[in-house]
Amino acid sequence: MKPIYFLLVFLVFSCNSKLENPTSPDEDKTAILKVMSTQEKAWNNHDLEGFMQGYWKSDSLKFYGGNGLTLGWKNTLANYKKGYPTKAQSGTLKFVINDVSQIEANNYWVMGEYHLTRDVGNANGVFIIIFKKIDGEWKIIADMSC
């Protein structure tokens, strides 16, 4: 009977550890918007590596844009560096968030617009990104921008 008791205690503590520090949808949305605000600031300083800190640093990251599907954090960063090699080309970024909705626990989508103000010509578009809470941090795991 003792092994069953220890198994039950282990399961209770295992389940409780997964529920530790639960957050509300409002808290999640605030944290997600903070990630995006940090990204804006990094972009506006032409800090593309800083901008990419909002993304999941994984080969499984997916970015879908005008050039098709890009897989992986490193490849996505390389595309940003190629497309925006100077501050004049990256310009000033402003996100307009139109919707943040929970998909399921620890997963949200964000729909919005991006606006780049640049001397070389402005660029505007729309996006849908998917955030997932990974190791306690909100990260973009998929991005579709056009």
Explain this structure to me?
The protein is an alpha+beta fold and 146 residues long. 38% of the residues lie in helices and 36% in strands. It contains 5 helices and 6 strands. It has helices at 2-18, 25-44, 48-51, 73-83, 87-90, and strands spanning 62-65, 68-71, 92-104, 107-117, 123-134, 137-145. Strands 2-1-6-5-4-3 form a 6-stranded mixed beta sheet, with helices on one face. Strand 3 and strand 4 form a beta hairpin. The protein is globular, with a radius of gyration of 19 Å.
Mean pLDDT score:
89
Compute the CA-based radius of gyration. Answer: 19 Å
User: What's the tally of helices?
Assistant: 5
> What is the approximate shape?
globular
Query: Whole-Å distance between the termini?
Result: 61 Å
> Portion of residues in helices?
25-40%
Task: Extract low-pLDDT stretches.
Answer: 3-20
Numbering strands along the chain, what is their spatial order in the largest sheet? 2-1-6-5-4-3
Oligomer: single chain
- Main sheet: strands, sense, barrel: 6 strands, mixed
Topology, pairings included?
Blueprint: H1 2-18, H2 25-44, H3 48-51, E1 62-65, E2 68-71, H4 73-83, H5 87-90, E3 92-104, E4 107-117, E5 123-134, E6 137-145
Parallel strand pairs: 1-6
Antiparallel strand pairs: 1-2, 3-4, 4-5, 5-6
Short description:
The chain is of the alpha+beta class. The chain has helices at residues 2-18, 25-44, 48-51, 73-83, 87-90, and strands spanning 62-65, 68-71, 92-104, 107-117, 123-134, 137-145.
Structural features:
146 residues; alpha+beta; 5 helices; 6 strands; disordered N terminus
